[in-house]
Amino acid sequence: MQLDLQIPKDKITLSQLEQYLAKAAWILKGPVGASDFKAYIFPMLFFKRISDVYDEEYQLALAESEGDEEYASLPEFHRFEIPQGCHWLDVRETTVNVGLALEKAFRGIEQANQEFLYGIFGDAQCSNKNMLSDHLLINLVEHFSQYNLANSNVDPDMLGQAYEYLIKHFADLTNKKAGEFYTPRSVVHLMGLIIDAHEGESIYDPACGTGGMLLESINHLKDNGEDYRTLKLFGQEKNLTSSSIARMNMFLHGIEDFQISRGDTLRNPAFFEGDHLKNFDCVIANPPFSLKEWGADNWVNDPFGRNIAGVPPEGNGDMAWVQHMIKSMKPNTGRMAVVLPHGALQRGGRQDTSSIIGNGPAGSGDWPCTKHLLRHWAGCLYHGFQKPEGRGQAKAGAVY
After folding, report:
1. What is the rounded CA–CA span in Å between residue 109 and residue 161?
2. pTM of the model
3. Integer distance in angstroms from the first to the last C-alpha of the chain?
4. From start to end of 307-367, where are the E strands?
5. DSSP state for residue 293 in the 8-state scheme
């Protein structure tokens, strides 16, 4: 493999990036269904990006060392390590079994960067020739090769915007306008205003999907002239593809202080402090609506103490998400915003959540505002609630 060390003179525009990514989806159309585009295109984009950034870092180190190639290859000069045979150019030079070459590169990069990238490329079968022929993959690789995606040629913010465009584009193609994959931008922006994150705070999304709500907190601080790099982002997502995309999304936006965990939040929450759930300054989510088989049997004696408002219906987990989010807020200063379907508070359960809310765990009074937060959400587009004077400042909002 011969590294391309030429830095382009003109930066790519946002319009060029958007057209570039949309064309990649068009190349896959036919053999691959629209709902599966994301499983292939996002990893390809991320692979191309980190390969080009590696080349750029290599060039800078080479110039610094007056041409010492061994010096320029040292891991300390690179954000991510790319093992021999796993670079974009290695795949581009492959003409037979291209899918196998891609999978080898993906696994090699994940293995070499286990702390940050393990499992990030997902589990798409690029080597399935019945779906992805060598000819199709060569066309896709050549399409992605037309632009250099190094930092000198595309800003992380612009690449992140193009990435968000691609997420919305796929949502439009598959009619997934809400839920696990995509939440409309206007709703995400509204929820960012509700939680009103500030420097140094922790943000948590228990159903983070592709990470859009976490990134909105970053944008909120940028808009207010605050240092977004001080935020601590946490997310959990059950879907393997979505959780991988969320991690790639963070890196492509230039965000590094984050933890995205894959797993079932209601059954196995990922974040703890000692022997209890971790508490966050801001909790924000658009959880899957009316989730069935969400784990009601475990909720009766929930080991994490989240059943502060009773047990929701077995066939509808909306209120389980709300209770999990409340339990994850810092008791005195926490804020939260959640998207819920109409009628979420009118559904009965094993214990009616509309009638026993507000008592807190074992009458402890830890959440004296719970009754106000939940009972008055019904029928609201958005409303903010605060504890009475002297009881802290916990606030929540609901978007229907």
Report:
1. 25
2. 0.81
3. 53
4. 335-339
5. S
